[in-house]
Amino acid sequence: MHGIEETIARGMCIGCGACSAATSGAVRVTLNTNRLYTASLGDATSDQIRAASRVCPFSDDAVDEDALGAPHPSVGARTDRRIGTYTRTLVGSVASETERVKSSSGGMTSWMLAKLIDEGLVDAIVHVGRTASAPELFEFTVSRSEREIEERRKSQYYATTFAEVFQTILGEDIRVAVVGIPCFIKAARLLCREDERFATRITMFVGLVCGHLKSQFFAEALAWQAGVAPSELSRVDFRVKNSERSAGDYDFGAWRENDAEPSRQRTRSLIGGMWGHCAFQPEACNFCDDIFAETADIVFGDAWLPEYSADWRGTNVIVSRNEALDAILEAGMSSGEILVEDVGPDKVAHSQAGNFRHRRDGLAVRLADDIAAGKTVPKKRVEPDAHRVDRRRRRLIRQRRRMAALSFTWFAEARSSGDLSRFVAPMRREIAKYDRIAVPPWKTLAGAPAKLFARFARLVSARQAVMRERRD
């Protein structure tokens, strides 16, 4: 049995804070040395620990995503094994050029959150936003107006917890929508099952498509490479759009306290900036099989598809599971506020093809590896199978996990010594290993004969041209 005790012992706690909310703070959630939130059972009673385990998204005491399903089942809803239940699957963006450009993707998440308040479906939004309380740059907070939603828009790849804010909403007669990545939404749903007080207040769940969470080290590492040291960092923007590049090829921005403009660097040029390298990925993310926040009413992500990702302004994929939200989308389409089109679930799922390989195929291998090593693992909807993929893919999966673990060690050393190279240099070597696995030498050599022939043909052609000139 893999309960909350094993989850914490394995370093698999994601720090959501549902356990703390379920036990009125008896289970404490604090930042650890890797700048990730983690739970501590401390002096909690056995009954409190069992309650905490029932709301932990990585505990076998909690029901899984299939059992939880969509929060508000709709007539005619269908189910897809990749994206969960759905009533509509769409791709698009807000019509406003201004709003679209200043969003991380197509602006649809912020648009929907504002509509939830405007239409009276909720009184407030619980989501991650900027904070002035150093050293943390972001935290879960409550927005009650469109202006506050606007101030807290955009993706925040940063470890946070809703332990405190959930205790805050208990003190009010209020209906809220919670916005979060899949495991956080699952935890919030489990908390509502456990405690009726939360069920009466959390009435809508808005999910975000997730590749994996990041430690707070992620912001610091990118900022430091952009020239702003951790001790100087006051603000970041993880996705600064660049009109000369594609939607996925964005910049990272970092500010010191009094900077008018950020220090900017192309994200994919920074060590740790490439998502596939898994730098600062929590161990919990190695055991997640939910990509499209299957227990949310609606989920938003990036349309990482060739026909959309070339547009630097960004485009959303949307999976709706709620008829009331379908009506809001339909009204927005009719009024021209949003430019979205219905697409099939295949296209939506394909937008996260790499994520499925990492989360589903990779999970099968990681489960098998840990079971073979005698480690406890949670029961997942993916069966353990080290041979689900070929040998090269297994090596890639294991190298990603290795890089994630080592990134914490090396950045902690760099931070304590004040020497960024103690992170960058060894990570660069691991990335080189990763690249050799991802693109093996034989693939590079396979193209060599064709390249040599083309070069020879060009030389022959040039020689023939010279001879013709001489004859003429």
Automatic annotation (TrEMBL):
Organism annotation: Agromyces agglutinans
Start and end residues of each Coenzyme F420 hydrogenase/dehydrogenase beta subunit N-terminal domain: 95-165
GO function terms (MF aspect): oxidoreductase activity, acting on CH or CH2 groups, with an iron-sulfur protein as acceptor
Coiled coil (UniProt feature): none
Domain Coenzyme F420 hydrogenase/dehydrogenase beta subunit C-terminal: 175-343
Domain of life: Bacteria
InterPro entries named in the record: Co_F420_Hydgase/DH_bsu_N, FRHB/FDHB/HCAR-like, FrhB_FdhB_C
Annotated protein name in UniProt: Coenzyme F420 hydrogenase
